[in-house]
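Section 3.1 - Work completed
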Amino acid sequence: MPATVFQDLDELLAAGRRDLGATDWVELTQSVLADFSAATWSPGGDDDNVAPPMLLVSLTNRFLPDLLEVRGASSGINYGTGKVRFDVPARAGDQIRASAVLTEAGEVAGGVQTTVEIRIEVQGSNQPACTVESLSRWLR
């Protein structure tokens, strides 16, 4: 599914609460889990097939450009997170995707700050693996 596109920051500010849709499903592979573990110097846990919580959080930044595009911004910056929740495990071999809702957009010095609630979903589960309030700044 293509990203929701805002032509400029004024359109983003006026959007209100907006469903941004969902990405395509992708497989969470064992090699992704191993690469994340190696990159973060993390020892394996009790089950090396379960995605570490911080991997799920980091995947929100992988998926966000597939969900939201702001063409009139000179740049977009990851500003951090609000609430983060983990509900069900995601395991190697699972199909995952992100769905998102723009929940807030407000003016800040030099641009607009948005809050986007991103859910990392596991195919076949009624609950997300992870829900993150992603904060971004879109600069003029």
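Second construct:
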Amino acid sequence: MPSEESSTARPLLLDTHCWLWIESGHPENFSEVGLLALEQGRRSGGLMISVISVWEVALLDSKGRIRLSLPCEEWVRQARAGYELASLPPEIAVESNHLPGDFHTDPVDRILAATARRLGVRLLTRDDKLLQYGQQGHAVVVPA
């Protein structure tokens, strides 16, 4: 895997919470490093969200764990604007269950890590387990 410094022109895949922070107007939740990565992503490589993040937002909404400003489907339709949507093809689904190194069992995190690896993009997150996975050198993970 390339280092984060050598890949700043690559697209930036947002973890679900990062997407929610941006779309709900909470840039203060990001560190300086995270804000810089977002700006670099917007200028050069683009910003991405995974279809699994759409699924996770819908799950959180259905369980009342988040409050969206619009009905979920409409919120997602509007919040997707300006992001490339990373799909979930069979190769990513398979890789999510065959990740190298030591990785936990959360399926959303596994799919995000596999997506970042397969597409060769950076992953922006605050999740400690994903950050540790990046430190192991298996993916380029940027601290939000």
